[in-house]
Amino acid sequence: MKIAFVVDGGLEMGMGHVYRTVNLARDLHGRAASCFVTKSDDIVVKLIEGAGFSVFHAASDDEIVEILKSIEPGIVIIDRLDIGEKMARDIKDGVKARLVLFENQFQPSNKYADIVVNAIMGAGFNNKKYRDEQTGTLYFFGPKYLTFKDDFYQFKKKGKKLKRVIQKMLLIFGGSDPSNLTSAALSELLSHDTDFKIGIVLGVHFEYFKELNRILEKYPQKKKNVKIYKAANNVAELMYKADLVMASPGLSVFESLCVGTPVIVVHQNLWQRDGFKGFVDTLDKKEINRIERMIKQGAYVDPQQNSIKNLEIGQGKAELIEAIIGG
């Protein structure tokens, strides 16, 4: 069986969609041959190729459809927020493949899909699985159907006891961090008397190194407590070993909760803020000065709360994969 993944990422849109599809392709290794189609830049292309998958580059959605016709996959998986109705219809009619859409927020195109997965955005943070009787589309809603790398599940099994006193922090604001929340959070943490040990995970599209280095040089005595990880492949371990994670709304929040580590959530934009409303109150960049007070008050997302446990975060992965492969 051949699967084609269609995905985009970059500085403004972030890299979460890319990481998720690469992880899913790895999960399907041995059961299907996977390739990727993207409109994104060389950084994204090299990341996917580095994971061991072939990549076709396209300039437009119409070109994506033509490439898919030439590839002739049995399954097309698209992970984008803005899948147009024409594109979905053209794939369904012209490629004759099973169509799976992840996190698509453009409702009219969903009716052409065999499966729609909205694990974060548009799900209302409620787990639900149902089939639309009119279109036949099978829907998977809620964090239960998030798909993590296997090591996140392995650390989850270990269990974790929460620390009453926060000492180890991990900052992870996505593959691009377009608002440079990393520098803002680091500056705030280093400006206080508390000597946090701070890990920073930087994605492939992060470009604010000058400001980050300027902040580190401003606090030479605390610089030794900061460790930077570029494009880390052991994020699950880093999250598990941290006492508290700071992340932007998206996959990283749920990865941290999966391994049992509390999270403070800082949004990159109003779209992220509004998307997470009703699940957790997120901080704006200008509110980062509240971090130390929030830590002392325990005002963060606690993975041991019943409301979080009841989400069954990531526990529907096998069920989802069987639906995709088995039809």
Number of domains: 2
- CATH fold assignment of the largest domain: Rossmann fold
Query: How far is the N terminus from the C terminus?
Result: 12 Å
* CATH C-level class of the largest domain: Alpha Beta
SSE order, one letter for each helix or strand:
EHEHEHEHEEEEHEHEHEHEHEHHHH
Give a count of the beta strands, DSSP E runs of length 2 or more.
13
Number of helices: 13
Overall geometry comes to globular
Q: Unreliable stretches, pLDDT < 50, 5 or more residues?
A: none
CATH superfamily (homologous) name of the largest domain: Glycogen Phosphorylase B
Named at the architecture level, the CATH assignment of the largest domain is 3-Layer(aba) Sandwich
Topology of helices and strands:
Layout: E1 2-7, H1 16-27, E2 33-38, H2 42-50, E3 54-57, H3 61-71, E4 75-79, H4 85-94, E5 98-102, E6 115-118, E7 128-131, E8 138-141, H5 150-158, E9 168-172, H6 181-190, E10 197-202, H7 209-218, E11 226-230, H8 235-241, E12 244-247, H9 251-259, E13 263-265, H10 270-275, H11 291-297, H12 306-309, H13 317-326
Parallel strand pairs: 1-2, 1-4, 2-3, 4-5, 5-6, 6-8, 9-10, 9-12, 10-11, 12-13
Antiparallel strand pairs: 7-8
Describe the structure.
It is a single chain. The protein is of the alpha/beta class. The chain has two domains: 2-113, Rossmann fold; 150-309, Glycogen Phosphorylase B (Rossmann fold). Helix content is 35%, strand content 19%. It has 13 helices and 13 strands. It has helices spanning 16-27, 42-50, 61-71, 85-94, 150-158, 181-190, 209-218, 235-241, 251-259, 270-275, 291-297, 306-309, 317-326; strands at residues 2-7, 33-38, 54-57, 75-79, 98-102, 115-118, 128-131, 138-141, 168-172, 197-202, 226-230, 244-247, 263-265. The strands form two sheets. Strands 3-2-1-4-5-6-8-7 form an eight-stranded mixed sheet, with helices on both faces.
